[in-house]
Amino acid sequence: MNKPQLDIQLGPDGKLVVKVSGVSGEECTKLADMVKEIVGIEDSRTLTDEHYGGVRILSESKEQTQVKASRFSGL
Amino acid sequence: MSSVCVLTPIVVGSWPMIAAAVASAASSMGFTLSIPVEAESLSVKSRQKAVVDIDNSAVAEAGIELQQTITMYQGGLEIQVKQDARGALSVCVIGESHSKGELEAIGKQVSGRIVQQFAYHKLMTELRTRGFDIVDQSVSQDQSIQVRVRMNS
């Protein structure tokens, strides 16, 4: 089983991009929320689903948005 | 399923935490740090000056009223990272041979690097306490930092 992993890129302008992998569904959301809590303001979040072979944007937000998305979102 | 988040750090910490981030940024940009100086040294009339605020920043020290400053130097530039009366941080760039626009651009670069260093140290410290280990780390030519961390249990 994969372990939860974070790939973090800190730009020279201070912006952060964090990719959470190795976990799915609610665990993934929890980890993303944890990083947001440590760092500060969330500009956007993109959930990707490799099962569908592409990237789906489920929610985008400015400032401290809670994203609640399930693996099967009815699509 | 995975997720990708874009985040803007909030720079809130004690003065020593912020000073450490300033020192890291100064070192990575080739600046020389000096001991803190009094604010009066800013008012040299023949020099241009630009001030850039560090967004979402505050020094979190209860009851402190000192307006602390860290000064760094490089190639005729004097850069002061200052805490104002409300605790917010700004970068003041002073130079003789640069236009105001150039000084402002330098101030933005320094501000970005301070935020980067602050976020890096805060994130790594917190992630270690939550059971993550650094498995890979590199710095790109554009000074972006890439870190891969993995849960150790």
Topology, pairings included?
The complex is a heterodimer of chains A (75) and B (153).
Chain A: E1 5-10, E2 16-21, H1 25-39, E3 40-49, E4 54-55
Antiparallel strand pairs in A: 1-2, 3-4
Chain B: E1 2-9, E2 11-13, H1 15-29, E3 32-33, E4 48-53, E5 57-59, E6 69-74, E7 77-83, E8 89-95, H2 100-129, E9 132-139, E10 145-151
Parallel strand pairs in B: 2-5
Antiparallel strand pairs in B: 3-6, 4-8, 6-7, 7-8, 9-10
Helix pairs in contact in B: 1-2
Characterization of this structure:
- The complex is a heterodimer of chains A (75) and B (153).
- Chain A is built from 1 helix and 4 strands, in the order E-E-H-E-E.
- Chain A has 75 residues and is α+β, with helices and mostly antiparallel strands.
- The termini of chain A are far apart.
- Chain B has 153 residues and is α+β, with helices and mostly antiparallel strands.
- Chain B has 2 helices and 10 strands; from the N terminus they run ββαββββββαββ.
- Chain B has helices at 15-29, 100-129, and strands at 2-9, 11-13, 32-33, 48-53, 57-59, 69-74, 77-83, 89-95, 132-139, 145-151.
- Chain B is globular.
- The mean pLDDT of chain B is 88.
- The chains are: A alpha+beta (75), B alpha+beta (153).
- Strand 2 of chain A pairs antiparallel with strand 1 (2-9) of chain B, so a sheet runs across the interface.
Q: Mean pLDDT of chain A, as a whole number? A: 74
Query: Helix/strand/pairing class of chain A, anyone?
Result: alpha+beta
- Taken from the alpha-carbon principal axes, the silhouette of chain A is globular
Instruction: Specify the helix fraction band of chain A.
Output: 10-25%
Oligomer: heterodimer
Shape of chain B: globular
Largest sheet of chain A: 2 strands, antiparallel
Q: Report the strand count of chain B.
A: 10
Distance between the termini of chain A: 27 Å
Count of β-strands of chain A: 4
Work out the largest interface and the residue count of each chain.
A-B, 45 and 39 residues
Structural class determined from secondary elements of chain B: alpha+beta
- Count of runs of 4 or more consecutive helical residues of chain B: 2
Strand order of the largest sheet of chain B: 3-6-7-8-4
Rounded to an integer in angstroms, the radius of gyration calculated over CA atoms of chain B is: 17 Å
Sheet with the most strands: spatial strand order of chain A: 1-2
Q: What is the first-to-last residue Cα distance of chain B?
A: 20 Å
* Helical fraction of chain B: 25-40%
